[in-house]
């Protein structure tokens, strides 16, 4: 029996090229399994082999999305695979986004099955879960072996055209699809059973979880910007040099605010980025590239805005859970309202 | 974050480079940034040109805060 041919897609880090300093690397390919691909190959067993590893820097992919996807697709197609495995990307937003785009392109254009893996909180999940098979991973590479095991098992089933079980059996994130099957009891009996189980305090598994497509109606815009107080908030990790409050560079559990009183522009001597999710060289050269204090001070002096609030709020977005981010926002919003802030510019990296 | 501020009545413009991700999460006023590592700058430009670029993006954000919208809008 010929072995199934698998191509693995990873970012620059897992390809062993480098960290954030190499995140702008263009797509390329290496023969065989690289890095986590070796674990993947072991998980696939004797019936499949990783014939090539295609890799691309996360920044390159995010900033040249169409070009990167086209090049990656071409590199993958040359190896005539039966299956594509991308990631897992854990909780990394840019990497998750790249894995999602690659898998969708592979399935739509090359008509080859693809499987990826992400932490359920990864922002790319919302975008891609309806169209892709995404195995649920932990938030970081600690869960690499277990995630690759499930990705390999699911990938083999898909490559062989086998029928898949329910998302929770197979370990992938529910895609919101319905399949017809014959139940042993009527809906009325199942509903009553569920109710009784709930009354008894037993765990109840819903048959159809409600989707959460939260949208917020836009509030009334600012009427007179020439009199308005504008505040800056950033998830880009700009802090006074030395990070005096030791805010986390990833997996944030707290935010801080710092004074901008008397500051006309951020300088590289006084400020820095401690963000753990992007190459901070450019931000450290000129922190106004992330937190635009200099031009807002100009606009304030010209009377284009009432004033720039003399303080800003900061945390690091990378790896921050949506639960924490929501809590941060609630706390900051209370303070913003107490300070009569009429508009916020939020900068994200 | 931007959504939660707006939920509490504070108009908020988000400057972010990865627009598809911002779109999927759902803030209302999105301004595409220049690049992930320097959303409001460009090291390839002269200091004066870079400052003009930054000013343009901030002005766009201020315009977004003054614009009546009915749902998610990308200000390009």
If you had to describe this structure to a student in words, what would you say it looks like?
The complex is a heterodimer of chains A (349) and B (76). Chain A is of the alpha/beta class and 349 residues long. Chain A has two domains: 4-170, 3-Layer(aba) Sandwich (Rossmann fold), CATH 3.40.50.2300; 225-347, no CATH class. Chain A is built from eleven helices and twelve strands. In chain A, helix 1 (36-44) packs across helix 6 (144-159) and helix 3 packs across helix 4 (93-110). The N and C termini of chain A lie far apart (49 Å). The relative contact order of chain A is 0.10. Chain B is an alpha/beta fold and 76 residues long. Chain B has one domain (2-74). In chain B, 42% of the residues lie in helices and 14% in strands. Chain B is built from three helices and three strands. Chain B has helices at 2-7, 19-25, 47-65, and strands at residues 12-16, 29-32, 73-74. Chain B has a three-stranded parallel sheet, with helices on both faces. Chain B is globular, with a radius of gyration of 13 Å. The model of chain B has no long low-confidence stretch (mean pLDDT 95). The interface between A and B is large, with 63 and 52 residues.
Question: What is the compact description of this entry?
Answer:
Chain A is of the alpha/beta class and 349 residues long. Helix content of chain A is 34%, strand content 18%. In chain B, strands 1-2-3 form a three-stranded parallel β-sheet, with helices on both faces.
């Amino acid at each position: 029996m010929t072995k199934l041919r698998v191509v693995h897609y990873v970012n620059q880090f897992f390809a062993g090229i480098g960290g954030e300093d190499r995140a702008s690397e263009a797509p390329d390919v290496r023969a065989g399994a690289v890095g986590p691909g070796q674990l993947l190959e072991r998980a696939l067993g004797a019936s499949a082999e990783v014939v090539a590893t295609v890799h691309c820097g996360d920044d390159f992919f995010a900033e040249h999305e169409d070009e990167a996807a086209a090049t990656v697709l071409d590199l993958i197609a040359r190896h005539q695979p039966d299956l594509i495995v991308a990631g897992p990307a854990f909780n990394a937003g840019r990497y998750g986004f790249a894995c999602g785009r690659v898998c969708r392109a592979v399935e739509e254009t090359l008509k080859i099955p693809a499987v990826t893996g992400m932490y359920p909180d990864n922002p790319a999940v919302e975008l891609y879960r309806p169209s892709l098979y995404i195995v649920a991973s932990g938030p970081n590479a600690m869960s690499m072996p277990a995630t690759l095991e499930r990705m390999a098992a699911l990938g083999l089933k898909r490559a062989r055209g086998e029928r898949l079980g329910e998302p929770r059996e197979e370990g992938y994130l529910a895609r919101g699809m319905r399949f017809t099957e014959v139940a042993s009891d009527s809906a009325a009996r199942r509903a009553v059973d569920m109710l009784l189980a709930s009354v008894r305090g037993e765990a109840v598994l819903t048959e159809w979880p409600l989707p959460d497509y939260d949208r917020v109606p836009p509030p009334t815009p600012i009427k007179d910007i020439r009199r308005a107080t504008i505040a800056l908030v950033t998830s880009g990790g700009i802090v006074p040099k030395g990070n005096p409050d030791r805010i986390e560079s990833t997996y944030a559990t707290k935010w801080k605010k710092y004074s901008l009183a008397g500051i006309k522009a951020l300088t590289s001597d006084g400020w820095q980025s401690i963000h753990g999710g992007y190459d901070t060289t450019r931000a450290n050269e000129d922190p106004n590239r992330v937190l635009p204090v200099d031009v807002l001070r100009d606009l304030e002096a010209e009377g284009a805005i009432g004033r720039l609030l003399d303080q800003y709020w900061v945390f690091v977005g990378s790896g921050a859970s949506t639960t924490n981010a929501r809590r941060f926002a609630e706390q900051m919003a209370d303070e913003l309202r107490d300070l009569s802030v009429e508009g916020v510019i939020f900068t994200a990296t | 974050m931007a959504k939660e501020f707006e939920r509490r009545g504070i108009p908020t413009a988000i400057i972010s480079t990865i627009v598809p991700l911002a779109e999927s999460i759902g803030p209302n006023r999105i301004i595409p940034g220049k690049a992930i590592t320097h959303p409001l700058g460009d090291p390839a430009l002269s200091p004066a040109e870079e400052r003009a670029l930054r000013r343009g993006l901030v002005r766009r954000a201020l315009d977004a805060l003054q614009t009546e919208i009915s749902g998610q809008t990308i200000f390009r």
